Amino acid sequence: MASLLIASTGGAHRLAWKDAAALGPAPRLARPWPAAVAAPAPLLRISRGKFALQAITLDDYLPMRSTEVKNRTSTADITSLRVITAVKTPYLPDGRFDLEAYDSLINMQIDGGAEGVIVGGTTGEGHLMSWDEHIMLIGHTVNCFGAKVKVVGNTGSNSTREAIHATEQGFAVGMHAALHINPYYGKTSIEGLISHFEAVLPMGPTIIYNVPSRTGQDIPPAVIEAVSSFTNLAGVKECVGHERVKCYTDKGITIWSGNDDECHDSRWKYGATGVISVASNLIPGLMHDLMYEGENKTLNEKLFPLMKWLFCQPNPIALNTALAQLGVVRPVFRLPYVPLPLEKRVEFVRIVESTGRENFVGENEARVLDDDDFVLVSRY
Q1: Catalytic hit among 88, 91, 237, 270
Q2: pLDDT tens-digit readout, 87-110
Q3: What is the 3-state secondary structure (H, E, C) of 111-167?
Q4: What are the CA-CA distances from residue 338 to residues 106, 313, 352, 377 (Å)?
C-alpha cells in the first residue's frame, strides 16, 4: 500500500508518494513555514486514511485556561454577597435586547444596594437566548458595570459539553462567577451529577443552582458534599426549603435562598448568607434591608403580598408584567411568555400603593395597562 511522506528541508516542505510508479507523478508543495509555528518532524510517515498518533494529544481536549490572575475574582468575593438580583432582560418591539432599559435597570439595582446580578438566568430568560446573545449580554454587563457589581453569568446547561463551552466564554469576557444548574429533562444519575459539576468547577467561582420544580430532579446533599472540596465552589442557590438550608450551613457551605418568600427566615433563622432574588428587580432597597438589618418580622410580612403575587404564575411572567406597569421596561414579551391577566395587573397597582411607590424602581406611577399595550414576539 502506498504511503505519504512529509519531508522538511530548509523550512520548505515536500509531499511525495512512496510508490510513485504506481501512482504517477508525485505532487509537490513548497511553501515557507511561518517562523512562529513549529515545523513538523523531519520525516513522518502517515498511512493513507489513518491519523498520526502524534497529532492527537490530551491537551487538545482540556478546557481553556488563562494564566492572567490579577483581575480575577476570588471565590471569597462571591461568598460574601447577600443580595444578588436575578435580573430581567428587557426587549425592543422587534424582540432584540433593549440595552438602554437594561442599563437603567442595572443602575437601579446598584443604587438599591444589590451586590451582584445573575445575567441570563431563569428570570433573565436565558433559555430564550441564543448562546451568542447570552455571552454578549454577560460581556456587556461586565464591561459597563463590572467595577460596581459582581456579574454572575448563567452558563449552565443540561449538556456538559455546552456548559463547559459557555463557561469558558463567560469567564473569557470577564464574568466574576458562573451559575450552574443540574442537567434537566435528560436527567442523570447521582454519579453523573457529580461528574457534570466536576467538569465545570475548575474554570472559576461557581454557584450551583438547585430548583427541582424546574429541572425535575433534586440535587441531594451527597452531590454538594462530594464537590465541596473544590475551591471554586462559592455555594448553592437552594430552593428546597429551610431544612435543606440548615443542612448545608451546619457544614459550613455557603447558601443563598432561591425563594423570596422564605429568604428572611433562611437568612436569620437558618444561617443562609443571603438571597438570589426576583423581587429585588422591583424593590432592591427593601430586599437589602431584609438581608442586612437583622430579623424584621414586620417588614417581611409587609412584603408577603408582593412575593405571593410575583409567583402567581411561573416566573418571570409576573415580574415582566410588573416592570412594564412601572414603565421601567417596554411591555414586550418573548413567547412563550404572555402578560398576566387584567385582574392581576389591577392587583399589582394596589400592592404598589400599599407598599409605597417610593420603594419600587422607576419614577412613573404604576399603571394597569390595556391588553393591546403588550407586544408578543415569536421571532427574534
Answers
A1: 237
A2: 999 999 999 999 999 999 999 999
A3: HHCCCEEEECCCCCCHHHCCHHHHHHHHHHHHHHHCCCCEEEEECCCCCHHHHHHHH
A4: 23, 10, 21, 10
CA separation for the pair 275, 86 (Å, rounded): 10
CATH code of residue 88: 3.20.20.70
The tens digit of pLDDT for each residue in 224-277 reads 999 999 999 999 999 999 999 999 999 999 999 999 999 999 999 999 999 999
Q: Given the residues 209, 251, 297, 380, select the one marked as catalytic.
A: 209
Overall number of domains in the chain: 1
- Listed as ranges, residues in the chain with pLDDT below 70 are 1-72
Is 187 an active-site residue?
no
* Structure-block grid coordinates of residue 330: 417596554
First to last CA, the chain: 55
Backbone angles phi, psi at 210, to 5 degrees: -110, 110
What angle, 0 to 180 degrees and rounded to 10, lies between the N-to-C axes of helices 160-172 and 131-145? 30
Any catalytic annotation for residue 237? yes
The domain containing residue 257 runs over which residues?
75-295
